[in-house]
C-alpha cells in the first residue's frame, strides 16, 4: 500500500454556494491534510487528526501555506487547436475557415497528433486541470493520440473524434457512414479503458448533414454510456446559417432535439443566443450548456446569460474552449467569467467560481463520486495553489484578510504560475513536468 499525506490549507465543496457567505457549501481546514492511499482519498480534515493515521512508510508533503483543492475540470476544449490559440481578427465562421480547418488538417499525421497530445495534457496539468472534455480532429489517429497521452499520465479524460461531413475542406470530412464506423471502433477501443470516457462528437449542425445527424442519433441510442458534445448558438451568423440548413426545425436547439441528441450526457458549447423556449428544452432534457468566457470574448461571439439558465432551471458548466479560448488556465477563465457576468449586472462570488471549476463541473459530467471534491473514496486528483506566485500578487495579498478575498485575488491575477503542484491519482505531476519537459520537433 502506498500512503501519502498532504498538509496545507484544504478547501473542498459539498454543494453550490447560495451566497458569498454560504459557509455550509464547503469544508475548509486552515491547518488541514489529505490522506491518500493507492491513488484515492481516504480522509480529509485537520492535520492534527490525520497525522496519526499515516503509517511509518507514508510519504508526507508539507504544502503550507498553499491551498489544497480538488483538481480543476475543463468541460470543453479542442486538442487540435493547441497551436491555433491567438489567431487574429475573425469571428466564428471566418475563424474556422481561415485558421482552424487549416490547423486541424495537420492531425492526419499520427506523429504530429502524438506530439501535440502530449504537450496538451502537460499544459492542462501545468494549469491545475486534471480532467477535461476535448474534441479531437476528424482523424481517428488523433483520438488514439489523445487517449494514449491521457493514459500515460493516468488522467481521467473525456473526448472523441469530431464528425463533420460537409462545409469543411475535403481532408477534414468524413461521411455519415465512416463517421459512424470510426466512432464505433473508437468507443470499443477506448471507452472505459483505464480512466477514459468517450464523447460522441458531431461538431455542429453546419458541418453535419441530416444523414450524419441520423447516424449520431443511432450512436447515442447504441451507446447511452457515452457523452455527447456539440456546439449551439455561439454566434449570430452561425445561428442563421444552421437554422437555414434545417428549415423544418423550430430553432437551433430543435435541430439537435429532432435527432434525440439532448439529455443528461449532452454538453452544448456556448448557448449564447437561445430563446426561453430553447433553454426550457435544455432544462427538461437535463442537457448542459457550457459557458466559455475567454472564447466568447475573443471571437466576439457575445455574452452568456447565466442568470437566465439559473432562473429556467437549466444546467451549465464552465470551460476554456481552447483554441477559441485564449488560455488553458481555469483561473484565467473564471476571471473572464466574472467580467462577462459583471457587465450584464450579474454576480459571481469567489466561492461560486471555485465550486464551478471543481464540483460544479464534476456534477455537470455526472462524475462527482470520482472527481471535483476531496471526499473519502474520491480519486486523488489535486491542485495546490500559491496565492503569492507573482510579485504583484504577493503585494496584493498583504492587504487580504479573508479566504474569499484570497480566492478572488488568485482568480483575478493568477495563472499557471499560481499552481504549485498537481497530483493525478496521488502522483505529483507538475514538479516532474518541470524537471522533464516533453521532447518533440
Ligand atoms: N463551432 C464549431 N466548431 C467550433 C470550434 O472549433 N470552436 C468554436 N469556438 N466554435 C465552434
Ligand atoms: Zn468548441
Describe this structure in words.
- The chain contains 16 helices and 16 strands.
- With 441 residues, the chain is an alpha/beta fold.
- The strands form 2 sheets. Strands 5, 6, 7, 8, 9, 10, 11, 12 and 13 form a 9-stranded parallel sheet that branches. It has a 7-stranded mixed sheet with strand order 3-2-1-4-14-15-16.
- Helix 3 (110-126) crosses helix 4 and helix 12 packs across helix 15 (403-413).
- The longest helix has 17 residues, at 110-126.
- It is globular, with a radius of gyration of 21 Å.
- 54% of the residues are buried.
- Residues 76, 78, 231, 269, 321, 324 line the site of zinc ion.
Q: Nutshell version of this structure?
A:
The chain contains 16 helices and 16 strands. It has 441 residues and is of the alpha/beta class. The structure holds guanine and zinc ion.
How is the secondary structure organized here?
Blueprint: E1 3-13, E2 26-37, E3 40-46, H1 47-50, E4 59-70, E5 72-78, H2 92-103, H3 110-126, E6 129-135, H4 140-152, E7 157-160, E8 162-163, H5 176-190, E9 196-202, H6 210-222, E10 227-232, H7 236-245, H8 252-258, E11 266-270, H9 276-285, E12 288-291, H10 293-298, H11 306-311, E13 315-318, H12 330-342, H13 350-364, E14 382-385, H14 391-397, H15 403-413, E15 419-424, E16 427-428, H16 430-435
Parallel strand pairs: 1-4, 5-6, 6-7, 7-9, 8-9, 9-10, 10-11, 11-12, 12-13
Antiparallel strand pairs: 1-2, 2-3, 4-14, 14-15, 15-16
Helix pairs in contact: 3-4, 4-5, 5-6, 12-15, 14-15
The structure holds guanine (GUN) and zinc ion.
